[in-house]
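Pair request: fold both.
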Amino acid sequence: MLKAAEVVCPEKRPAFANISLTRNTVADRVTELSSDLSSQMKEKIKSFIAFSIAIDESTDVTDIAQLAIFIRGVDETLTITEELLELVPMNDTTTADDIFSSLVGALDKVGVDWSRAVSLATDGAPSMVGRKAGVATKFRDKGRNRVVTQYDDSIHAFKMKLSLWETQLSNGDTEHFSCLTAVRLKAPDHPDGDLDKYKDNITDLLREFERRFQDLTPNIDALVKAKRCQVSGASSSK
């Protein structure tokens, strides 16, 4: 550490020399750092409105399989966070059940909301993508604790939010855009032409969002209508 200090910040070498570097001290500080990072991660994950997972299993130099789990999420301000969540040692077998169990354990440890799971990326191995018992199939089923109409409600709500932002920017209202508001306050004489650029970005995002889900809403409406007819028919027959 002192050698590194001499290269990076030689003027601070005396300060580094006075730091206690006993084995227990270093271990305690590493534990504190780990706990703090874990706490920050849990708080950030609570704010996710949607998240995706990437996993990769490989073997280290000691011939022990290691499962790397990455999480990527987005919050209500559309801020994207991507982190290495955990590196899980697979000491026994590496079947789909083993991998999925380790994945669930890591995600439950940080308190994810499974209903907000969007996708899982893997290396394409049979144990990962098996149609009946692969990790991807288990992951998809794990996130299915909401009915399809609830997903439609979430999609509709997000489209309404985009429409609101589009209208606000068209009217020069930056209430939901704190950075833009701060810039306008610092430069009140600056023209608002840039707002049109941001508004166009929101418009493009809205159109792309509508394009991707254009087939979903009609099908859900038809499903709900058919279900209501079934319920109505059953009630009439009684």
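--- second member of the pair ---
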Amino acid sequence: MKWKHFPFLIVFSLSQNSPLLAQLIPDSEDLERGTDNGTPLPTSDNDDNSLGYTGSRLRQEDFPPRIVEHPSDLIVSKGEPATLNCKAEGRPTPTIEWYKGGERVETDKDDSRSHRMLLPSGSLFFLRIVHGRKSRPDEGVYICVARNYLGEAVSHNASLEVAILRDDFRQNPSDVMVAVGEPAVMECQPPRGHPEPTISWKKDGSPLDDRDERIT
């Protein structure tokens, strides 16, 4: 950081819906006197201008991040891939990080062996969902956070749940013999699972029409 003197006034403009703007205006008094008594202004020696300065003034086109695509809730099977979407705008282009339960999510940017990948768009991609009886590292509530030097933006919460379906039916249907015209009941209870499984019936390989008044 170095300081330079110029016969200019720096004027800041700030409103609720606009970013901080800075403008340099010649100081008429200094120009008339021909002296250099301007307010010292900061300049940056950083090549990438990551602090948002160009020469001795703030970049007027910069603005803080905002989320333009929020992640949505997901229910996915164990071992399957999944994606939590997130997209943000801002200038400079914001960096995006993900958090689960308040803890920062480790991705391939931190460890190349990670099964979670931070995509260029900012979305979080899971090569496979890891879920076991004792360890459930991927299930939980996620947010994405976009940041640049002007501030940060936080997405809506998005939950990732792992779908589970046991192998065995709790009750299988059995043969029933009834007289013509009499009602018949075929009982069935699906396997336990999350979300709760639903049941559909087939007869001779074809789905039954639930609009048939004889079937309830």
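Observation on the second member. The radius of gyration is 31 Å.
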